[in-house]
Amino acid sequence: MLASGIKSRPVYGRLTSNPQARSNIMVADAEGALAVLDMVADAPDGFWARTHILYVPGGSAAQDHGAKLAALAPFSWHESPTVPAMLPRLRALLGAARMGTQLYLAGTEPLIGEGIRVAGEFGVDHAGVRTEHRGSLARRVQCVHCKGITESVTMSIVPCAHCGRHLFVRDHYSRRIGAFQGVMIDAEKPGDRPPAEELYR
Amino acid sequence: MELAFNEETFRDDFTFRNSPHAIRRFPFPFHEDRYMYAVNIEPHVPGPKGSVYEFPIDVDEHYVSEMRDRALVLREDPLRCQALPHMMTAQWDLLELLMTAMARDYPEHFALTRDGDRWHWINRPLGLDQRFVFGDALTLPCEPMEYVTRQSQGDFALLDHRDGNLWMDAGMITTQADWSLDFDIGMNFFEWHGPVPLAHEMGVFERALKYLLELRVGSPVRRLNWTMTVNPRLDTSPERYPSWGPDRLSLTPDNIGRKLHLRVELQSFWRLPRSNAIVFPIRCYLISLEDLVTVPKWGRRLPRVLRSLPQQLVDYKGLTRYRDMALEWLARYDDGAATSPGGAPD
Amino acid sequence: MSIRPRSSPVRVAEIVPVTPFVKRFRLAATDASPLPRYSGGAHIVVEMRDGGVVRRNPYSLTSSPLHDGDYEISVQRAEVSRGGSVFMHDRVRVGDTLAVSAPVNLFMLDWRARKHVLVAGGIGITPFLAQMAQLSAEGRPFELHYCIRSPERGAYREALERCFPGHVRFYCASKGERLDVTQLVASQPLGTHLYVCGPTPLIDATLEAARAAGWPGHNLHAEHFAAPPSGTPFDVYLQRAGLRVYVGEHESLLEAIEAAGVEVPYLCRGGACGQCETAVLGCDGRLQHHDHWLTTADRAAGRKIMPCVSRFDGRELVLDL
Fold first, then answer.
1. Which of C159, C155, C205 is nearest to C184 (CA)?
2. Do B183 and A144 touch (CB under 8 A)?
3. Rg of chain C (C-alpha set)
4. Which segments within chain B are labelled E, that is strand?
């Protein structure tokens, strides 16, 4: 579980099934699959038969989590190569969903962030989404200057993948963008920047 | 007092100046010789004639130039003005609030005629004459919040009230002290204050939120906040940090009195009627150290306050590079005499 | 630091019987300054001077929030009245002056909703009248389900059918029509918000059905405007004021405290908003909680009471006032 004192960062919990839900949409990436599999013991009868699963194996592809998820015999099942490729399917499920549908997001923070962002487009309040963080701690970082997103950031200072400025990653998270804020480290004195350290993996 | 508008800039050649009248009415924020956070909120009631509190929406000598600077900011970066789709009712509430107040309190400059939903707005200083249908955004050249806040000094955040919290779901933010609307839009009260040090632990935000949730229509409240800015620059956004960050290294003992400015935000909070949202205007006033020390009490008090700041606040407010130089420059104005309580000049 | 509700005088401009049991009152400003505007779902507290007794009852504003001008409220004559609604029905005349608080909204629409489902029972229709004016003007998807006991009790039925055709459905109990809340909550699109106002059994049944169907709490909104129940008279001691106060049978604890000259902050006067929460310093007897605010744990601890609706039975009650 991801502990942090960052006020603007969501608090991620442990995935538990919502026994009242008439229908479930479950989205996971990489090791997030393990959080879904951990629910099996507690899931009520018939739970998987009313559950849609969208899975993005990412770096965990070799571990065959996808086959284990498919073996749960969910109502629908799809594996996507990347999060952006998965999102149109999530939108289609949410667009057709009724009240009483529970959304679950398990895996990396970027996956959870994207899922919550898309759910908001369908009037789903982030507080009602069940989440669990698993796997990489790497951050998505938005460059506050050029607005480009740099993916998979593990260092305290990182060059923006779009404008090239060296960004200090602030502990400030935007749910709407699903990213941390990056601010130019050497704006006051060009070139004056401390060495980058690996802070999260 | 007759209001004459300055011709001045807040960038490049920085020709911004305060008249002697503007100096006298400056909202000096320190009520004693030290500073710490407090929930220093009070009713936003009319203050003395000529003060920044005389009218609920203050229009001053910088009006025309500030609006020109806002237009320049928006031309480069339209993301400084954004509204989530559910905030349209609140946008109209804000337009009504500002137009009504400005036309009532500055009739020589602004006029509003209402015939049911058909409104006619005249802004003489900016040379605008607009007829529109209240509630129909297509009858204005842009959305109502953008339209009216291009004509009102200060930043404006619109806060949606739901689930016992306030959510920053719209705003016009071009004169901010280093925070990004584009990043913070959609956050709740605790989230957008996330980066502020110390105050969370002190329970300041819990108490402030509880108070704000009880706001009634017609009973706004206010507080002052402050920081310092090198050069009289309104747009100290994180977006533009690369262009204003180097200013901090341009200070010398010879120019600091002229270049370093105390930046005071008059923040007010108003319940909006039809949306039940809250509008949070953040009005920025700038004064150079040179002008500030012309009021002897302020010259004595400011160095004492700066000396009393905890290091976390010095860093958060961005004063780290120049606080000592500022203290050295200010020292000659502090003769050690006692100061009277409150922020007003003696 | 609480902001006290300020009251301002209004003149009764018009009284219109809506049904045999409901009267509509139009309240106008007494001077040129307009009455403050409000949002759909807001209420005002009306202050009535009934001889030596001051009564304060909350009423939803039913006039359209879109237009400036007078306030309208609709008052149902309570079958077992503590005095307020009977006073409004029998004693208030056109031209009289009443005092009203500034509007407060404790039953807000969530403007993000993709659809709004409104469920009204009887006089619980009142907050929805103002909300529908706003929803309709903004072209937002909404539907009203309005439960009434009998045709003559269907306040505003014709007006609703005329103004919002296709958006309203009526369920008249005397004709055997019933709203099936289970079916209602089962077939709503994601992003729907549900609002219910009316008798407690209707509110409870609706919320229970929605929760059982997996609706998250954020999407559920209820307005409990329970009138303070009558009960056995009792005494209360106000520690800080050093006063002993008698609470009569048809008087609430809050009203008795106010009559003794002690001010308590309040907003809803119906046990919903939490404003008047008061610490219990001593209790030799049983607290009779009638509010929707305190948690089960609060009630078990017995250290807090909501004087707007709750009462006491026993020997001695001491409050931190």
1. C205
2. yes
3. 20
4. 42-43, 81-83, 110-115, 118-123, 128-133, 155-162, 165-172, 221-230, 260-271, 278-288
Q: pLDDT tens digits for B99-158?
A: 999 999 999 999 999 999 999 999 999 999 999 999 999 999 999 999 999 999 999 999
How close C40 comes to chain A (CA, Å)? 21
Topology of domain C234-319, CATH: Ubiquitin-like (UB roll) (3.10.20)
A6, A175, A181 member nearest B186 (Cβ): A175
- Does residue A1 fall inside a structural domain? no
Radius of gyration (Cα) for chain B, nearest Å?
A: 20
Which residues make Cβ contacts (< 8 Å) with residue A96, sequence separation at least 6? Answer: none
CATH class, range C115-223: alpha beta
Class of domain C7-104: mainly beta
Interface test with B, best of A121, A141, A183, A192 (most B CBs within 10 A): A183
Chains contacting chain A through 3 or more C-beta pairs under 8 A? B, C
For chain C, where do the domains classified as CATH 2.40.30.10 start and end? 7-104
Contacts of C211 in chain A (CB under 8 A): 20
The closest CB to that of A7, out of B191, B241, B249, belongs to B191
CB contact under 8 A, A125 and C189: no
User: What domain range is A155 assigned to?
Assistant: 139-184
Residue C217, CA atoms < 13 Å, CB-side half-sphere: 4
Give me the residue from B186, B200, B321 closest to A7, CB to CB: B200
What are the E-state strand segments in B33-187?
Answer: 42-43, 81-83, 110-115, 118-123, 128-133, 155-162, 165-172
Q: Which of C2, C3, C132, C140 to mutate to test the interface with B (most CBs of B within 10 A)?
A: C3
- Enumerate the CATH 3.10.20.30 domain ranges in chain C, comma separated: 234-319
Q: Report, as residue numbers or ranges, the catalytic residues of B.
A: 223
Phi and psi, residue C138, nearest 5°: -90, 0
Among C113, C211, C218, the residue with its CB nearest the CB of A20 is C211
pLDDT tens track for B303-313: 999 999 998 88
Residues of A with CB under 8 A from a CB of C: 18, 20-22, 94-95, 97-102, 122-125, 127-128
Q: Does C60 touch chain A (CB under 8 A)?
A: no
Cβ neighbours around B303 below 10 Å, total:
21
Per-residue pLDDT of chain A (201 residues; tens, 9 = 90+): 344 566 777 788 899 999 999 999 999 999 999 999 999 988 999 999 999 999 999 877 778 899 999 999 999 999 999 999 999 999 999 999 999 999 999 999 999 999 999 999 999 999 999 999 998 888 999 999 999 999 999 998 999 999 999 999 988 999 889 899 999 999 999 999 999 888 877
